[in-house]
Amino acid sequence: MNHENTLFKMTMRGSFMAALMVASWHAQDVRAADAQQAPPVYQDTQRSFEERAADLVSRMTLEEKAAQMQNSAPAIERLGVPAYDWWNEALHGVARAGAATVFPQAIGLAATFDVPLMDEVSRTISDEARAKHHEALRRGEHGRYQGLTFWSPNINIFRDPRWGRGQETYGEDPFLTARMGVSFVRGLQGDDPKYRKLDATAKHFAVHSGPEADRHHFDARPSARDLYETYLPAFEALVKEGQVDAVMGAYNRVYGESASASRFLLRDVLRRDWGFKGYVVSDCWAIVDIWKNHKIVATREEAAALAVKNGTELECGEEYSTLPEAVRKGFITEAEIDVALTQLFTARMRLGMFDPPESVRWARIPASVNQSPEHDALSRKAAQASMVLLKNDGVLPLSRKLRRIAVVGPTADDTMALLGNYYGTPAAPVTILQGIRDAAPQVEVVHARGVDLVEGREDPAATPLIEAQYLRPAAGSSERGLRGEYFRSNDLSGTPALVRVDAQIGFRWDRGSPTDNLMARGEAGPSQGVPSDNFSIRWSGQLLPPVSGSYRFEAAANDGFRLYLDGRLLLDHWQPSDRLRADSVSVELEAGRAYDVKMEYYDGERDASVRLAWNMPGAKPPFEEALEAARGSDVVVFVGGLTGDVEGEEMTVNYPGFAGGDRTDMGLPSTQRKLLEALHATGKPVVLVLTTGSALAVDWAKQHVPAILVAWYPGQRGGNAVADVLFGDTNPAGRLPVTFYKADEKLPAFDDYAMKGRSYRYFSGEPLFPFGHGLSYTSFAYSGLRLDRSDAGPKEQVRVSLKVKNTGQRAGEEVVQLYLHPLEPQRERALKDLRGFERLSLQPGEEREVSFTFTPEMALRHYDVERKTYAVDAGAYEVQLGASSADIRLKKRFKVTQ
């Protein structure tokens, strides 16, 4: 019995041990299986973004790595890496991605001198960007202009009014540029402690402001003082304060090095001196310039290797495809490529691209925010704030009791005058003509274009569109307009993606598909999408001429178009074109007859636009029509200036006064000057409204025209905003972010990057209108300037306070500006520097205290060439408070001690 019990116990113990052993082996198998099934490090959301990025990069082949360092990065399916295009734009709204709210152009936003407003605008832009990105993902789309990495803002200094891209900047002053730029970055990148909302990009680092025609081979060599006191401060602020995640290099050389492969700029200044932790992207095809135009190296491989080694992780272009060969030739190591690519994937992971959407706060932004009524209202608010009243002899605000207003000029009814460049597709843009009509429906508003924008330009917008009342989509139809069939092909083949009635043929899309434009008005859904390139449209129906006689038809498009009347081909330009091309034909038509009309159009690549216009029999010459409209009116509103069609980025078409997108004449184009003078000669009061992205020399107008308003390129609700100011519903308070020079001012050579003689900081002459200038319909008094100390060491804070009172009869806003002026300059330096501004709203009779603080170490620093560092000179300085750089109301001395 005992033996049996013992045997039993031993048997049971052995079974138990055996079971334990089996369990142990099973557990090991499970752990081994789990280990095999555990996600790789790069998918482990508990790891840091840097660890995950490094692990992901380590799993790629050299060829895959090189492909991921180009803007159009392909998918790596075996690693679960989706395709991604880094290229996106958001200068003043999400650009080139179809429907999006369009705010005033950057130069107009700068004119607001309103950082809190810029915070609102940039947050709104980032909301729409996130919403559009996730909508694209839901459709399985990963193309250009659909990502989360935005190549904005442009914080180059607008040093010369001739530069066509100056409209993209925040003006000529480093301090204003820094404040606006930091705000813009803050709004785009968000405030989440873990995930970026978007990536902003400070561009173009760092000495880049024209001429456009020379940008691929020019070598900028500013003095060290100009570099550190003018060209670098805004970039430094965006890196240190804004924590901007990306910086874009420029095309040109700086001190002999390509700006997109500069050891000095990218390694020494950006990373070593400023501690930049983000990534650098080249301007598009700037790496090509390194070997092809700058001839710094001889081959593509050497150019790619040089750019990566000196700090450009991402290329917009295709030269980085040669990096594997560059490794094999010994120009760069794979380890150096790994470091650069890890930086890029860290950025993508910080944007939440490799994490579950539910864990990323920004992924929950609904698509409904895009072009919402609230965003539309903010666009109008920003445009109102950007308006700068240069002159007013009492003609403004206009009375709504006027009998008739003549609205004259080439940009009065031109949508392009609202948009500038780098824009999205607005839902319902309001031109200035429409804005005036909407604001005063009881006043008769007559319109005459008068002249073309510039001399010698084929200007299709000069001919009025055929109105809907003269068109019907089919015989017997009660609808008005033409039947539009939209195709996903560029040859009108296949089943139309969309069929609808268009009231007129007059469209323009900036790299956004026409369906996106329709979606903005709720007329089509994503399933009906037409691509942004290689699409076609056929319009057909009947034409109903109101009178008999000779009609001149004009069609225009970018790219091809054909026009038929009663089956007869009248115009045939079925070829690609890199610009808007127009042609016309005259035809005898009879009133009371219906003519079959058909227009076909296709777009190839990039910008798309098309229009169908006519002149009716007996139409007067445009110039005479404008004068006749003026003579029969109580007041004339002349709307002219420039558009993004003539000033902008590296253009191939030149006109008198313009070259490659830049300007050779700072004045109004000659066509407009002649009309403006003729309108004045009628004896009617003339209000000049300027659409522009830069300073215009309007000397004659300043002397003879009673009121001048600068509207910039005011965005989708610009027409309403202009009318709000003209009729006094908004009291203007915008300020000039650039100096307006006189027409005969001899500025330094355009390609000279020395700041001497440029901007209010170094210009000793008398400007036409000074930096910071802007009038109001009310008046303000400044008093009680106090400094909390009469002297201060470099690191001691100085507090400045004053009182501002609205002494007029209506509410208004004043932009109080603080300047610091050296009284005993010990070296060549700026005459004065803006060091603070505040926009405040005051009711009639209301008074408020305003205060600013600064430390001499930052506010009064100069670059010491000998010591190669910033320094502050001891001595006497003056605090100046006023309404512009020239309108100083209060001043007080103080001393900097060592």
Automatic annotation (TrEMBL):
SMART domains: Fn3_like, PA14. Gene3D superfamilies: Glycoside hydrolase family 3 C-terminal domain, Glycoside hydrolase, family 3, N-terminal domain, Immunoglobulins. It comes from the Bacteria. Keywords: Glycosidase, Hydrolase, Signal. InterPro entries: BXL, Fn3-like, GH, Glyco_hydro_3_C, Glyco_hydro_3_C_sf, Glyco_hydro_3_N, Glyco_hydro_3_N_sf, Ig-like_fold. The keyword Signal applies. This is Beta-glucosidase.
